[in-house]
């Protein structure tokens, strides 16, 4: 069975070098749907609590919200960084609080202090699915990711690889010692 959660991401990007309107900087509200698959944990009669999937995903993905996403070779990148620097917001601002931990993967690097994500490939809906999967595959038993942005949508199915032990009282993943980080339940 699957537990499914959805979250919104508001971001700006462009398709550098693309012969179409999308080569100009523009913004979207993207809708990301994550489907997690496993057996039903009988104690809570759930695969996984949807709000916990959302929390786990948001912790990393909030770096994409109200962010600018640019490809690493886009000449806008140094230009924007120069403006942010001159304005004194390159290394943070007091009201930039919604920051996740900085991350760097093969496909994307997040600079939460200035709400920027630099990608290796153009951030299409397909590109976003690859990035999201690489960021969350070890944390969640992902079976499917769908990303919709404007008139564009893509989805991909994955083979859920992990066998995650869950708390029979809260449904969330037990830590490496078999203890629930929320209620303290210990696996026997
Ligand atoms: Zn777009
Ligand atoms: Zn628990």
TrEMBL record:
<dbReference type="GO" id="GO:0070497">
    <property type="term" value="F:6-carboxytetrahydropterin synthase activity"/>
</dbReference>
<protein>
    <recommendedName>
        <fullName>6-carboxy-5,6,7,8-tetrahydropterin synthase</fullName>
        <ecNumber>4.1.2.50</ecNumber>
    </recommendedName>
</protein>
<comment type="pathway">
    <text>Purine metabolism; 7-cyano-7-deazaguanine biosynthesis.</text>
</comment>
<dbReference type="InterPro" id="IPR038418">
    <property type="entry name" value="6-PTP_synth/QueD_sf"/>
</dbReference>
<dbReference type="Pfam" id="PF01242">
    <property type="entry name" value="PTPS"/>
</dbReference>
<comment type="similarity">
    <text>Belongs to the PTPS family. QueD subfamily.</text>
</comment>
<dbReference type="InterPro" id="IPR007115">
    <property type="entry name" value="6-PTP_synth/QueD"/>
</dbReference>
């Amino acid at each position: 069975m699957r537990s499914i959660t959805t979250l919104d991401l508001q971001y700006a990007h462009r398709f550098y070098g693309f012969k179409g309107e999308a080569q100009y900087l523009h913004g979207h509200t993207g809708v990301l749907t994550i489907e997690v698959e496993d057996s039903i944990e009988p104690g809570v009669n759930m695969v996984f609590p949807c709000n916990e999937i959302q929390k786990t995903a948001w912790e990393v993905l909030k770096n994409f919200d109200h962010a600018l996403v640019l490809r690493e070779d886009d000449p806008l990148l140094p230009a924007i960084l120069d403006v942010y620097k001159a304005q004194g917001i390159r290394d943070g601002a007091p009201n930039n609080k919604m920051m996740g931990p900085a991350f760097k993967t093969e496909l994307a690097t997040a600079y939460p202090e200035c709400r920027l994500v630099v990608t290796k490939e153009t951030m299409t809906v397909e590109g976003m699915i690859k990035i999201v999967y690489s960021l969350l595959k070890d944390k969640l038993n992902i079976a499917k990711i769908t990303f919709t942005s404007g008139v564009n949508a893509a989805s991909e199915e994955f083979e859920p690889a992990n066998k995650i032990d869950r708390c029979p009282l809260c449904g969330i993943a037990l830590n490496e010692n078999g203890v629930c980080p929320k209620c303290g339940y210990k696996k026997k």
